[in-house]
UniProtKB/TrEMBL annotation:
An annotated Gene Ontology molecular function: transmembrane transporter activity
Organism the protein comes from: Formimonas warabiya
One Gene Ontology cellular component: plasma membrane
Entry keyword set: Cell membrane, Membrane, Transmembrane, Transmembrane helix
Family: Belongs to the ABC-4 integral membrane protein family.
Xref: PANTHER family: ABC TRANSPORTER PERMEASE YTRF (PTHR30572:SF4), MEMBRANE COMPONENT OF TRANSPORTER-RELATED (PTHR30572)
Membrane topology: Multi-pass membrane protein
Domain ABC3 transporter permease C-terminal positions: 257-371
Name recorded for this polypeptide: ABC transporter permease
Subcellular compartments: Cell membrane
Domain of life: Bacteria
Pfam families linked to this entry: FtsX, MacB_PCD
Length: 378
């Protein structure tokens, strides 16, 4: 214990006597550890954050009837939906398409769950408001322009059921859909309202699903649905899933590259500082060796200083790294992140390891000092 206490006093005394240089080395390690901790947090949080962002671009998987079937019944839809983890489901919007007439003009109506549509397709711009309650509908911009209706106006829609009987119903325009796409040519109403004028079939034509999962996980879910439910054919929306995977891959590669560069710069800074310390202490090292100090004791002393700096910098890096990652997440994604306890040992181990590697060249230089030459002043 006495020997260990003496070793500790020697290390601390050396750090205190050269505190200006050691502060520089400590700051280098702390900054490196901060960026390392922050970027690792961001690296593993990017899929979650970006996944939520991509969910605002619409469905990434659709369910359609298999084979020669023309529609999906509710039981098949619910069976397929059970494959998705509940926490991963952002929204599932079923659609039934039928032709209705307004003032004897035919239009395509889409019966759906409007609350789910809002979750699956949050990018829709609605002039007015989302329908609430019965008999409220959304008109596509093209339909609204053609029949000259605005939010708050009413109209009568007529449909023909399977037996050829006509049914009419009055609706109120809650809002106008503006997407710049095919949605502007539809009338969107609740399934119950559409079934009221077309007949209750308890069937839908397609289900649009927004699932928080990467392409690999989504493909696995699709395979499970196809294997266990022969009535349903799942299809990935490639333009969404592939774009998501590409962006995530590039962002993670960028974070990885920046982390490696920062760690290399940290090693260079610490190595340079320790080399300057060795140069300053040449006479001290020469005197120790002349008095019988072994190379091993000198190596342990310098490594002790370096590892102390690495551990201290790692502790600071864990704290400031989380604050750094939190700031990036809030400013870029407008969402907070949770602290990952695993980052503490990872950051400490990497910081100590990087500092230890950075000390190898200076330590080797210290062991090469010849006492006779140094003490003669050469």
């Amino acid at each position: 214990m006495k020997k260990q206490s003496m070793y500790f006093k020697m290390v601390m005394s050396s750090l205190i006597r050269r505190r200006s240089r050691m502060v520089v080395a400590l700051l280098a390690v702390a900054i490196g550890a901060t960026i390392l901790s922050g970027l690792i947090t961001i690296y593993y949080d990017i899929p979650r954050q970006m996944g939520k962002e991509f969910r605002s671009y619409g469905a990434n998987l659709i369910l359609v009837p298999a084979g020669e079937q023309s529609s999906l019944n509710t039981a098949a839809m619910e069976k397929a939906a059970s494959v998705f983890p509940a926490d991963n489901i952002v929204g599932m919007a079923p659609y039934r398409y039928e032709t209705v007439k307004i003032n004897e003009q035919p239009f395509m109506a889409a019966g759906t769950d409007l609350a789910e549509v809002k979750k699956v397709s949050p990018y829709w711009y609605i002039a007015g408001q989302w329908p609430e309650g019965k008999d409220a509908v959304l008109l596509g911009q093209e339909v609204a322009d053609l029949i000259r209706l605005s939010p708050g106006d009413t109209f009568t829609a007529t449909g023909t059921d399977a037996q050829g009987e006509n049914f009419s119903h009055d609706f109120t325009v809650a809002g106008i859909v503006q997407t710049g796409g095919a949605e502007e040519a539809f009338i969107f109403m609740s399934l119950a309202d559409l079934e009221g004028i077309m007949g209750n079939r308890d069937e839908v034509d397609v289900v649009e699903c927004s699932i928080a999962a990467d392409e690999e996980a989504l493909s696995s879910m699709a395979e499970q649905i196809g294997a266990h439910d022969p009535e349903v054919t799942p299809r990935l929306v490639k333009r969404v899933t592939q774009s998501e995977q590409t962006v995530l891959g590039k962002l993670q590669a960028l974070v990885y590259l920046v982390t490696v560069v920062v760690l290399l710069l940290t090693m260079i800074c610490v190595s340079t500082t320790m080399m300057a310390v060795v140069t300053e202490r040449r006479k001290e090292i020469g005197l120790k060796k002349a008095l019988g100090a072994a190379n091993q004791s000198i190596v342990l002393e310098f490594l002790g200083e370096g590892l102390f700096l690495g551990g201290s910098g790692g502790v600071l890096g864990v704290l400031f790294g989380f604050l750094f990652a939190q700031s990036v997440s809030v400013n870029v994604f407008s969402r907070s992140i949770s602290f990952q306890p695993l980052l503490i040992p990872v950051t400490l181990v990497v910081s100590i390891g990087i500092t230890g590697l950075a000390c190898l060249i200076p330590v080797r230089s210290a062991t090469d000092i010849e006492p006779a030459i140094v003490l003669r002043g050469e």
